[in-house]
Design a protein that fits this description.
Largest sheet: 5 strands, parallel
Strand order of the largest sheet: 2-1-3-4-5
Number of strands: 8
């Protein structure tokens, strides 16, 4: 059973998250602050932690290194009402695997958890993602078109992606895909289909890619 740790100081939201996740079959422990979450990690293993960005005391981002000392392979999602691309990149650089923007739908919460855990298994930590590589990836129109296509179709084979973005030179397109993967925006799932990472999803939703 997937074990989820929540640190959220809004009691109503915290309990709502618990209700949603328990209905999905997750084993959940929810606490009002980062300090308590860190303490619980000393005695319990978790697959993922959902940390509110702004809480009294330690922030969710500040807690990441402490959480990872106890659970090195735990995925961490920062939850915030003040999300921007810069917020996401900063959180990723400090070890977060994703950023979830409030208010969110229950389906988005569950999808973010499942995707973050899957990414943790498939990819190395996203802590080496930096703003330069993200913005460099977005600077190219072909890469922006790739992100938009994946946002519309969710998962695509290489040849289908080529067709959608109208590229006949497969070697050239492979190069652009490698840059998107290096920036942490695109990945391949267990069926070798291309999908957006959580970072890619966030960038697509919060950045003008026209």
């Amino acid at each position: 059973m997937t074990k989820v740790l929540i640190a959220e100081d809004d009691q109503d939201l915290r309990m709502n998250m618990v209700d949603i996740l328990e209905l999905e079959g997750f084993d959940v422990i929810a606490l009002p602050c980062a300090e308590e979450a860190i303490a619980v990690c000393q005695n319990h293993y978790f697959d993922i932690a959902l940390m509110d960005l702004v809480m009294s005391g330690m922030t969710g981002v500040e807690a990441i290194s402490n959480l990872r000392q106890e659970n090195p392979f735990m995925a961490v999602v920062i939850v915030t009402a003040y999300a921007t691309v810069d917020t996401a990149v900063d959180a990723m650089k400090k070890g977060a695997d994703s950023v979830l923007t409030k208010p969110f739908k229950s389906v988005d919460l569950v999808m973010t958890i499942r995707r973050s855990i899957a990414e943790k298994q498939l990819l190395k930590s996203s802590s080496d993602i930096d703003s330069d590589s993200v913005y460099a990836a977005l600077a190219n129109p072909l890469r922006r078109a790739t992100l938009k296509s994946l946002g519309c179709h969710k998962e695509l084979k290489f040849m289908d992606l080529c067709r959608l973005v109208a590229v006949e030179d497969h070697t050239k397109f492979n190069f652009h895909l490698r840059q998107l993967k290096k920036a942490g925006l695109v990945m391949q799932n267990e069926r070798k289909l291309y999908i957006l990472t959580n970072t890619g999803q966030f960038v697509l939703q919060h950045h003008n890619l026209s």
